[in-house]
Design a protein that fits this description.
347 residues, Rossmann fold, 8-stranded mixed beta sheet, 14 strands, globular
């Protein structure tokens, strides 16, 4: 009997250019909002029609840079803009809860940057408001919308690598102490966990669901935010081993190993981006199949397209990141913070 070589499962992620057009308003024109606006324009049929900032000048500059028709000198004015179909919240973590609620209370669906909020408690308030209003709310954990993540999960579900034994992911960037002030500041819910650690946690969640037995150790800055964190958790007999740091650049790789093979996420940069390759590797090290990225640019377009499809179809949750997944990730981060000793002001 001829045996067939195990293969990666094909991606089922739809072409972002086939998603319905949507008119976006951007709330908080900072660093990542630029990436989002470029992806809307280059990678979808949507458009950024308006931007809101605490400063009319900053809003105006951003609108000019990205060709948005209107700029608003307050977030209240942005969410009241009748020409905006959906709001992308791109402010610091500490503000997500308030700004998502602001958009929902104005009747606007929201896509909220990761981490979705500071805590599970804040997350629940936002999701309840979305449910009550019948409006879409989605976590902009862009990696979970990528074809690579779909391929990895489907390959695991097909049993191609056998019983899962280990999920491993690391995310370290040199962003502290000389990087953005946002990361150093407890008042803005800084630290490595919510900014960087959320990726390894989301990767494990994507494959395993709810992590049990979460154990974490970490180091804190003098200001009391986490600098480096190591996390383990289990689901049945599968172990997840996750790390993040904002004090060093690490390889930023991920893998999932099973009894009959493993999947490696490798690439020029981070394991969670559109330029990542996926390799299916046999226990003896033979590479059996590889997925090379077809569209390495504008990786945000997958989350943007899914939000547009969900809103057009009347769905309240993004399919790749249902609310339960956002809740699970936030619950893990709450537990990690409890063990490591990070408390944000006002909690
Ligand atoms: N998906 C990704 O790859 C990725 C990458 C980086 C960051 N992010 C996420 O995106 C979010 C924003 O990060 P960023 O790096 O873009 O931050 P940033 O460059 O500091 O921009 C944040 C923006 O939020 C607004 N803002 C509102 N309240 C603020 C406050 N109290 N303090 C400071 N700024 C405030 C500011 O705009 P105005 O003052 O003009 O209104 C500012 O430009 C975070 O949730 C982060 O985790 C995601």
């Amino acid at each position: 009997m001829p045996t067939t070589t195990p293969r990666l499962a094909p991606s089922t992620v739809p072409d972002p250019m086939e998603a319905p057009p949507l008119r976006w308003g951007i709330l908080g024109p900072g660093g990542i909002a630029n990436t989002f606006a470029a992806a809307v324009r280059a990678g979808t049929r949507g458009e950024v029609v308006a931007v809101g900032s605490r400063s009319a000048e900053r809003a105006g500059e951003f609108a000019r840079r990205h060709g948005a028709a209107r700029s608003h000198g307050s977030y209240e004015a942005l969410v009241a803009d009748d020409g905006v179909d959906a709001v992308y919240v791109a402010t610091p973590h500490s503000e997500h809860h308030e700004h998502a609620l602001l958009a929902l209370s104005a009747g606007k669906p929201v896509l909220v940057e990761k981490a979705f909020a500071r805590s599970l408690a804040e997350t629940e308030v936002v999701l309840e408001a979305a449910r009550a209003a019948g409006l879409f709310a989605g976590e902009a954990m862009w990696s979970r919308y990528l074809p690579q993540y779909d391929v990895v999960r489907r390959t695991v579900e097909a049993g191609t690598i056998g019983e899962l034994v280990l999920v491993q992911a690391d995310h370290g960037q040199l962003l502290w102490p000389d990087g953005p002030q946002r990361l150093a500041d407890p008042a803005l819910a800084g630290g490595s966990l919510l900014d960087l650690g959320v990726y390894p946690i989301a990767f494990a969640d994507h494959l395993l669901g709810a992590l049990g037995d979460v154990a974490a150790r970490g180091s804190l800055s003098d200001q009391g935010v986490d600098v480096t964190v190591g996390i383990t958790g289990t689901v049945g007999s599968t172990l997840a081993r996750l790390t993040c740091t904002m004090a060093a650049a690490t390889p930023c790789r991920a893998l999932v190993a099973g009894t009959t093979g493993r999947l490696e996420l490798t690439g020029p940069g981070y394991f969670y981006e559109a330029a990542t390759s996926v390799r299916l590797v046999a226990p003896d090290g033979t590479v059996l199949d590889t997925m090379e990225p077809e569209h390495p640019d504008h990786g945000f377009r997958y989350e943007i397209a899914e939000a547009a499809r969900a809103i057009a179809e009347g769905r309240l949750e993004p399919a790749p990141v249902p609310w339960e997944a956002t809740r699970r990730v936030m619950a893990v981060m709450d537990e990690v913070r409890r063990q490591v000793g990070v408390v944000y002001p006002g909690e």
